């Protein structure tokens, strides 16, 4: 079942006025059109984690805002759970966390969730039980009685996740849920998203943090300058072959490291250890042999395959124009 489907979805903003001054000269633009999203066609299947990826300004938030009817498309169509946008029965089954949510920061954590539970029309007993469950899920049971104005960025993100799960949604849409978080906070959000999939929910989230998306997504769509570059699973997008080999050695004199570096793509030396990066298996095997002969120690040897970040740079690096591609996979 296609939980989310977009067909030729596009959004053009019109700027009525933009003034730029250069000394005494003022340049004015009227009715200047900006294409934030261009013919986006993709689908998200039931029960999967789908990542909408790309740099800032790629069109990710615009696409999500159209799905949530915060913005309206200039052209194209979109469906949620097989129904056109705006169906109230579908809206009741969606949880949404925007990129920069505004919370009533004078409320305590449990009061904030209780307020939204009342908006959802949840009975008091069910509301209290659900709030306790969600505070435990997002790791904020200890902060339930603290006002939100005392929460950190990560805590605010987690209370926002709890809020968007209050109504037990089938589809969860998160706009940059890991933005501004430290590594621990990002891991906590990743764990919550994985748990949502285990519970049978569908998760659509946007992110510019490609490494995090690579860890948890079943499929991803990559946007660049409003256009769809590619869409598919990690196996479909990324090369299966080893791209390079990373060798870490220690106990070698500087002259020996220079000899090893002659066949390496890159050499980094720090605190008695050297990291050498080779492009083929034969070169790294020869480096291992030389290191042992010289009395050095092999700390590690790691084959590296193409990452999602490598793939993205290969596709759009240097300002290359994206190639549009359909999203039915």
Number of strands: 16
Per the CATH scheme, the topology name of one domain is Rossmann fold
Tally of individual helices: 11
The CATH C-level name of one domain is: Alpha Beta
How do the helices and strands follow one another from N- to C-terminus? Answer: EEEEEHEEHEHHHEHEHEEHEHEEHEH
Shape: globular
> Which segments are poorly predicted (pLDDT under 50) over 5 or more consecutive residues?
324-329
Structural class: alpha/beta
Summary keywords:
329 residues, alpha/beta, Rossmann fold, Alpha-Beta Plaits, six-stranded mixed beta sheet, four-stranded antiparallel beta sheet, disordered C terminus
Task: Provide structural commentary.
The model is unreliable at 324-329 (pLDDT under 50). The two termini are 12 Å apart. The strands form four sheets. A six-stranded mixed β-sheet has the order 8-9-10-5-11-12, with helices on both faces. Strands 4-1-6-7 form a four-stranded antiparallel β-sheet, covered by helices on one side. Strands 14-15-13-16 form a four-stranded antiparallel β-sheet, covered by helices on one side. The chain has helices spanning 60-67, 88-91, 109-119, 124-137, 153-164, 183-198, 210-216, 234-237, 254-261, 281-293, 308-316; strands spanning 2-15, 18-22, 25-29, 32-45, 49-53, 75-80, 83-84, 94-97, 171-175, 202-207, 219-224, 227-232, 242-250, 266-270, 273-278, 297-305. 33% of the residues are buried. Helices cover 32% and strands 33% of the residues. A hairpin with a 2-residue loop joins strand 14 (266-270) and strand 15.
């Amino acid at each position: 079942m296609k939980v989310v489907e977009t067909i030729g979805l596009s959004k053009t903003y019109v700027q009525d006025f933009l003034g730029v001054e250069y000394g005494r000269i003022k340049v004015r633009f009227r009715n200047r059109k900006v294409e934030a999203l261009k013919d986006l066609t993709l689908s998200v299947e039931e029960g999967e984690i789908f990542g909408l990826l790309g740099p800032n300004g790629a069109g990710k938030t615009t696409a999500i805002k159209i799905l949530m009817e915060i913005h309206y498309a200039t052209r194209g169509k979109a469906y949620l759970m097989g129904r056109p946008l705006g169906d109230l029965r579908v809206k009741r089954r969606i949880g949404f966390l925007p990129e920069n949510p505004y919370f009533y920061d004078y409320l305590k954590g449990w009061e904030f969730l209780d307020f939204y539970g009342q908006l959802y029309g949840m009975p008091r007993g069910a509301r209290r039980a659900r709030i306790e469950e969600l505070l435990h899920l997002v790791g904020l049971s200890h902060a339930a009685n603290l006002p939100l104005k005392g929460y950190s960025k990560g805590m605010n993100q987690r209370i926002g996740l709890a809020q968007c799960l209050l109504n037990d949604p089938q589809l969860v849409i998160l706009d940059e849920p890991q933005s501004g978080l430290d590594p621990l906070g990002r891991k906590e959000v990743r764990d919550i998203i994985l748990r949502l999939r285990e519970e049978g929910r569908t998760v659509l989230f946007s992110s510019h943090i490609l490494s995090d998306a690579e860890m948890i997504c079943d499929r991803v769509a990559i946007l660049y300058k409003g256009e769809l570059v590619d869409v598919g699973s990690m196996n479909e997008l990324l090369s299966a072959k080893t791209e390079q080999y990373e060798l870490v050695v220690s106990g070698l004199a500087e002259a020996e490291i220079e000899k090893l570096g002659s066949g390496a793509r890159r050499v980094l030396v720090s605190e008695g250890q050297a990291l050498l990066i080779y492009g083929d298996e034969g070169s790294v095997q020869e480096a291992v042999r030389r290191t042992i002969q010289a009395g050095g120690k092999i700390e590690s040897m790691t084959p590296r395959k193409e990452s999602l970040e490598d793939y993205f740079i290969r596709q759009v690096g240097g300002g290359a124009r994206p190639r549009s591609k359909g999203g039915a996979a």
